[in-house]
Amino acid sequence: MARTVGFFTDVSLCIGCKACEVACKEWNQLPDNPVQFRDSYDNTGQLDHRNFRHVRFLESATSNPDKPVAWTMMSDVCKHCANASCLEVCPTNAIIRTEFDTVFIQQDVCNGCRNCISACPYSVIGFDSQSGTAKKCTFCYDRLQNNMTPACAQACPTQSIKFGDLAEMRQVAADRVTALHSQGQTQARIYGDKEYGGLHAFFLLNDKPEAYGLPSTESAVLPSRNNAAGYLGVLVTAVVAAIGGLIAFRRRGEAGPERPPHATDEPGSRTVP
Amino acid sequence: MTNHWRDIKNTDLILINGANPAEAHPVGFQWFLKAKLDPSRGPGSGGGARIVHADPRFTRTSAMADIYARIRTGTDVAYFGGLINYVLQNDLTHKDYVENYTNASFVVKDTYSFKDGLFSGYDPTTRKYDVAKWGYETGSDGFAKRDINHPRSVLNLMKTHYSRYTPEMVSRITGIPQDQFMRIAQLVGEMGRPDKVMTIVYAVGLTHHTTGGELIRSGAVLQLLLGNMGRPGGGMNAERGHANIQGNTDHAISWEILPGYMQIPAPERKSIDDYVAKQAPKKSDPRSWNFFGTNYKKFTVSLLKGWYGDAATKDNDFAFHWIPKPAKNSSWMSIYDQALKGKMQGLMLSGMTATSIGPDSNRVMQALANLKWLVVMDALPTTSSEFWRRPGADPNAIQTEVFMVPTTHWIEKDGSFVNSGRWSQWKEQVLPPSGSSRHDHWILADLFQRIKKLYQQQGGKFPDPIMALTFKYADPSKPTLDEIAQEVNGFDLTTGKRMAKFADLKDDGTTTAGDWIYTGSYPDSGNLMKRRDGIQDPLKNDPTGMGFYPNWAWSWPLNRRVMYNRASADLDGKPWDATRPGIKWNGEKWVGDVPDYPASGPTADPKSKTSWLPFIMTGEGVGRLFSSSMADGPFPEHYEPMESPVQNPLHPSQSEDPVAFLYTGADSGNFKKVKDSFGNATDYPYVATSYRLTEHEHYVTQHVPLLAGLQPHPFVEVPVELARQKGIQTGDRVRVRSKRGKIEVLALVTPRLAPSLIDGKQIFTIGIPIHWGFVGVSAEQDPTKGANWLANALTPFVGDANAYTPEFKAFLVNIEKI
C-alpha cells in the first residue's frame, strides 16, 4: 500500500473552472466560503482551513497583439514538501508524513498552536476556529487509503491536475516541458524538483515562480543542519515556536480570528461587504 | 454539432466564434487541448492544432487560444465574409469539393439581385422578402441548370457579393486590426487542402442576434468552400447549453417545427399531400436523392399514427387536421407580447424561469402580471414563482394567481440527455424525489387525464385531438420515461415490434414514430442509449481509431457520429485525408462511420452513374453556398445589431437587418414606432453583451451556497480605459441603463475588455454576466435583496429574422458610478 504519490499541476492546461475547488470541498466537507466579492473571478482568495485547492487568477496586459492579456489560472495546493517546515515546527507531532509520503495534520493530535501556519512558506494552512485546529490539504488521505484518486484530480476536466506515483509524475512533467519547448514556449519550466527538498505537489509554470507568488528556487530551502547560522535559525525558530505555542495554548479558550493573521488579501484584490 | 466533442481532437485549426467553451463547456474543452497538444496536427509543418478565438471579451477560452481577435459583438458575418473573400480571391478553396459537393455551379434566376443592402423581392410594408426571387434557373426537365462558368452561377455571384468584404472593410466593421485579420486568414487559407481540416465552434454568441441564422450560415459557407463539412475534425459545431438543449429542439419544444425538424404546417394546408408538396424539400437535381423530401410523408404519417393511434386512418388523412397550424409567429417572445395585449388567461412554466431568461425582464414581468393565473413547475423557487413579491413590487397590485408545483430535479429521475454531439445518453435516477415533488411528465399526465375527464363530462370545443390522443402507458397518470422512449422510437403496428430504422417507416399507417430521427434508438434488441462501450477498451470499442465509439450510447440519426460524411471521401470514395477517414468505399460498400448515404448498391457505388450526390438531406443533393430558405437573404450579409453605435459601413442606408422580427405590441404594424423605441448611441454610447460564467448554471445555482461563494455577487466588466474616464474602480457600485431598464451591481475593471476602433470611432464594450436575480443565496444575504440584479432588464425585445431568437448579445447602454 505504501507508495510515494504526487500531484503534477500543469498551469498551461488550467482553464480556471474551479472544479477542483468544488470537488475538494464536497469530498472533504469543507464549509462554504462567505458570500463576498473580492475581484469576481477569484472569490476564494487563498488556501486556508476552508479551501484546500485554490485557483489563482493572474492577469496582466502584454504587448503581444495576438494575446493582449496574459491570464494565467493556477490551481494551488499544499506542496507536500519533502523538507516540510510545518512538520519540523509542530510541537505535538500532529503533522506526520504518511505511508504515501504526504504531509498530513492529525486533527485529534493538533493543539491549535499555529506554528505550522507561520512556518509554511506557501501559506497553505488555515486555522479553523470551530475545531481549534490547523487544517490543510490532506492529499485526500482517506481516498488514497482506498486506492482512489484525490477528488481534485478526479474532477479536473482538462487533466491540468494529474495524480500518480511521484516518479512517474516527474517524468510526465519533464516530457511536457520538452513538448512545450519544441512548440516555442521556452518559458515553460517545472517548479518543485528541488524546492524544499522536492515538492510532492509540483507545477509546470510558464514564467518565473515569483510571477505566481511562489518563492524562487534559490530561496526555497530549509536552513541546512551543517551550517551554524542555519542551526541558530532553527534554534531561534524552535524557541519562538515553543513560546508561540504556549501563548497559543493559553489562548485556546478565546475566539480565534476568522482567518490566519498572515493571510492578508492578495495585492489588488478587494473585499466588498 | 455536425460532428461531436471528441472529434475536435482530430482537427488542425479551431475557429471559435460566439462561444466560450473553456467556461461554458469545461469538460468538452479537454478535446480542444488534446488537439493543441498533438504534434501531428496544425497548419504548416504541424506542432499542435491552433485555436483562434474571435470574441468581444478576452475570456478563459482566449487565455488558451493561440490568437485572440477582439471582434465587435454581432459582426461575425463580416469576419467570415472576409475569410470567404480571402479564400475565393486567392484560389484557396477545395476545388473538387466545391465543384462536386456544393451548389457552386447552380445557375440563379435573373430575378436575384443585391443592391444597397437589400436583396431583390423586399416589401417594406410587411418587412418580408419574396424568396421565390432567389430561385434557380431551371431547364426543360424542371431541374436546376448547372454551369459553374455562367455569370449567374452561385460561385460567380458569390465572388461578387463577398468582394466588398476586403480586409480593410472587415477591420472597419469588426474592429479586428487588418494585419491580425490577415494572420488569421493565412491560417484559414491552408485549410482548403485535402490533407488539412478546420472546425468552427459556436454557441449562443452567434444565435442571440437579429442576424443569428446568417451569422451561423456564414461559417458554414466558409466550411463548404474549404471542403470541411462532413469530415472528421471539421464541421460547423454548435455547443448546446444545459445538458439537454439538443434533445429539446430535436423533440420540437419550439413552435415552428414538428418532432424531427419537420416544419409546422401552414394554416392553409388542408391535407398531408398538400403539406408535403409545399413544405418538404424539393428535388432540384436528377442525381439528388432528396432523402428528407422523399420520406416527409412517411415521417408525418408515422408521427400522426403515434399520436392518434386507431383514430388516425387513411380516410381521415391520418388526423392531419388535428395538428395545430399557427397563423403567426408563436415564438417565445410572442407569448409575452400576447399576454401584454390581454389575449392570454394563464401560463405554465416548466424547466425555465421566464422572468430571468427572456429579454426585457420588466416587460416580461408586466406580462406575467397581466395573466389570471401562472403555474410554475420547478424544483426550487424561481424569479417567476416569486415575481409578485420581488423587491419593490406591491403584491396587492398584482392580481395574477401564482401556483408553485414542486417538481423533481433531473438527478431525481432517469431518462436521456442529448449532448451537443447528438448523443442520446440514458442516465439513472441518483436520488429519490424529495418531499411531495413529482416529475414534470407526471404532472402533465395527471393534468391531461383531468382535462380529458372534463371534456368527457362537459363536452367542449374541438375535443377530438384530446379525446383521441394515445396514452398507452401502464399507469396513465405516471408514464415511465422508458415507455416514452419506446414511443419516440416507434413501432411496426403489423408485428408489434419496435422499429429498427427510419428508412422502414411507411406512409400507409402501419408504422409509428414519435420522432423519426430517434427511430433506431430503442429497437427490439433494447435501449441503445444505455450502451457504455467506451475507453475501457479503445481498440475494440473504437475500431477506426477516429473516436466514433459506435457502441457508446446512441447518436441520431442512425447512430451516425459525423453528419454528411459522404463528403469526407472524394468522388471515388477515398477519404480526402487517409489519416482521418470518415467513411470509405471498399469496393462493395461504405465502411467506417455509419454512412450518411446508402451503404451499398448502384445508388452508393462511386463508379455508378446512378450514385446519389453527397448531401442527401437537401433537395439539391449538395451543400448550399446560396440558399433561398433563409428569410433574410440567400448569401449571409452583415447587418448591424438593432442597437448599434455605428451605421453599417457596407450600406449606411440599410444598416440593420431589414427583416429582423419586431414586436409591435399594441402598435400593431407600426414598425417605425417600434424601431424608434430602441436606444441610440447618443444616449447610450456603449455596446453591451450578456453572458454566462463557469461557476453558475443559469439561475438555478443561486440556490447552491458552495457555487454562490465562487461567484457571489452580480457585476459588470468594464474596460480599464472607460473606467478611468468614469472614475470607476473594481468593487464600486455602478448603474447600467439601457432604453428598457437598469441594473445596479458591482464593477470589475479589467484589461480583458478594451476599446475597438470601429469605422474610425473608439467603441467600448461592457460585459454583463446574467446569473443573478432576486432569488437565491446571494440575494437573501444582500441588503437590496437583489433588486435591480436582472441582467435581462437591459436586453432588447427583438427577434432574429429566421428563428425569432432575441438579441441578447448586442445592445446599447450607459454606465455611471453610484
Structural summary, described in words:
Chain A is of the alpha+beta class and 273 residues long. Chain A has 7 helices and 10 strands. Chain A has a single domain (5-253), classed as 2-Layer Sandwich (Alpha-Beta Plaits), CATH 3.30.70. Helices cover 26% and strands 18% of the residues of chain A. In chain A, the strands form 4 sheets. Chain A has a 4-stranded mixed sheet with strand order 8-1-10-9. A two-stranded antiparallel ribbon of chain A has the order 2-3. The radius of gyration of chain A is 19 Å and the shape is globular. The termini of chain A are far apart. Chain B is of the alpha/beta class and 818 residues long. Among the domains of chain B are: 255-326 and 480-521, no CATH class; 332-419 and 423-458, Rossmann fold, CATH 3.40.50; 652-817, Beta Barrel (Barwin-like endoglucanases), CATH 2.40.40.20. Chain B is built from 24 helices and 29 strands. Chain B has a 6-stranded mixed sheet with strand order 22-24-23-29-21-27. In chain B, a hairpin with a 3-residue loop joins β10 and β11. Chains A and B meet through α1, β2 and β3 of A and α2, α3, β3, α8 and α22 of B.
Largest interface: A-B, 40 and 51 residues
CATH topology of the domain at 652-817 in chain B: Barwin-like endoglucanases
Which whole number gives the mean pLDDT of chain B? 96
Count the helices of chain B. How many? 24
The percentage of residues in β strands of chain B lies in: 5-15%
Counting DSSP H or I runs of 4 or more residues, the number of helices of chain A is 7
Q: In brief, what are we looking at here?
A:
The complex is a heterodimer of chains A (273) and B (818). Chain A is of the alpha+beta class and 273 residues long.
Based on the model shown, name its key terms.
heterodimer; A: 273 residues; alpha+beta; Alpha-Beta Plaits; four-stranded mixed beta sheet; two-stranded antiparallel sheet; 7 helices; globular; B: 818 residues; alpha/beta; Rossmann fold; Barwin-like endoglucanases; six-stranded mixed beta sheet; five-stranded parallel beta sheet; 29 strands
